[in-house]
Design a protein that fits this description.
Protein name: SpdB2 protein
Helix content: over 70%
Structural class: mainly alpha
Number of strands: 0
Strand content: under 5%
Number of helices: 14
Low-confidence stretches: 296-320, 324-330, 364-370
Radius of gyration: 54 Å
Organism: Streptomyces cyaneogriseus subsp. noncyanogenus
Length: 370
């Protein structure tokens, strides 16, 4: 009986321990969930702060980019242009309506013509059109603006002289401001763009001059390009091939006549050099003759002392000399050569320089260079 109560108490104690452990586990889970939620809230707040700072920096960057002197000048000029148009249009509309309602579109046409021509000047600058196109557009713009200014002046003078002068000035200042803006924009192009424009202008000038000087070759080159599949033959390669067809050489600019003139000039130069150096035919031949003289140059003649000293002197008594040599059993010894001044021709200065250079190279090869 006692054992049953003990087991019952043990079971109750085990159940209580299990409930305690479960409660601790649930408490730990709740604490972990609370920490995770708090961490997520902190991260969300930090992310919101970062996003807000990024938006603030982006606005500051846009504001800084927008408020640069260049943007302020360009956009400010456009604002002045719009104000000029708005100030000059009512007087023109009133003037033409007083004449006839049919003339209502005329003031808009005049103002529109002035601004479209000014925009055409900017487009011509952008597309690098010839200068006469830009000046023609400027003249047309100023003509339309001047006519509108005269109408506003006559209309304003009926009211008050100040009104007339003011309306005329407002009408003319808008196109003038826009033109000055375009000039400033053109002058402030970066150096790389200016260099690229100069190169493009020089290339166009070169192509124009080549078409003028070599019409037949250019025509044939264009025919070769059009005959080849699209994009497979470059015009420069076609021009070189056309030049070879016309003149027989791949070097552009050279013709048979120029080749003949080049050969004649080379021959004339060689003749002039030979005349300056004297005989032989060329400087190289003369230098070789000085470095390696012919045998005839070593001896001035049969009576030369150097040749004579290499041969035993003739004896007036050959039989006695022969018997004497037979008795002694030895051969005659020739007289040693004796070099005298004037036996050898003097070396040319070029030969001396070449010999010194050869000796120096031999000394370097043998390891005796100091």
């Amino acid at each position: 009986m006692s054992s049953w109560f003990e087991e019952r108490r043990a079971d109750k104690a085990a159940d209580a321990e299990q409930r305690r452990r479960d409660e601790e586990h649930r408490s730990r889970l709740r604490r972990e969930e609370a920490r995770e939620e708090k961490k997520e809230r902190r991260e969300e707040k930090a992310q919101r702060r970062r996003d807000k700072a990024a938006r603030r920096q982006a606005r500051a960057a846009r504001r800084e980019k927008t408020l640069t002197p260049g943007n302020v000048y360009r956009k400010g000029t456009l604002a002045l242009v719009a104000a000029s148009a708005l100030a000059s249009l009512p007087a023109q509309v009133d003037h033409f309506i007083a004449i006839s309602w049919m003339l209502l579109p005329l003031p808009f046409a005049l103002e529109g013509a002035a601004w479209v021509m000014n925009a055409g000047v900017a487009y011509a600058d952008e597309r690098k059109l010839p200068a006469w196109v830009r000046w023609l557009l400027r003249v047309l713009a100023m003509t339309a603006a001047g006519y509108a200014a005269s109408i506003n002046y006559s209309y304003g003078m009926e009211k008050d002289p100040a009104v007339g002068y003011g309306l005329a000035a407002v009408t003319m200042l808008g196109p003038l401001f826009f033109e000055v803006r375009q000039w400033v924009t053109t002058l402030t192009v970066d150096p790389a763009e200016r260099k690229r424009r100069a190169e493009a202008k020089a290339r166009r000038k070169h192509e124009k001059q080549r078409r003028k000087d070599h019409k037949d070759v250019g025509k044939l080159a264009r025919q070769l390009v059009s005959a080849a599949p699209f994009g497979t033959l470059d015009f420069e390669d076609a021009f070189g091939a056309a030049w070879e067809i016309k003149y027989g050489t791949r070097i552009p600019g050279m013709t048979p006549a120029l080749h003949a003139e080049k050969l004649a000039s080379s021959k004339a130069l060689a003749d002039a050099m030979d005349a300056a150096n004297g005989s032989p035919v060329s400087t190289r031949g003369r230098l070789l003759e000085l470095l390696h003289p012919a045998p005839s140059a070593l001896a001035s003649g049969p009576g030369s002392s150097q040749v004579a000293n290499q041969i035993p002197p003739a004896s007036s008594r050959p039989s006695a000399d022969a018997s004497k040599a037979a008795k002694k059993g030895s051969r005659l010894r020739p007289v040693p050569p004796v070099r005298r001044k004037g036996d050898t021709a003097p070396y040319h200065p070029l030969a001396k320089v070449a010999a010194a250079d050869t000796a120096r190279r031999h000394a370097v090869v043998n390891g005796h260079h100091h």
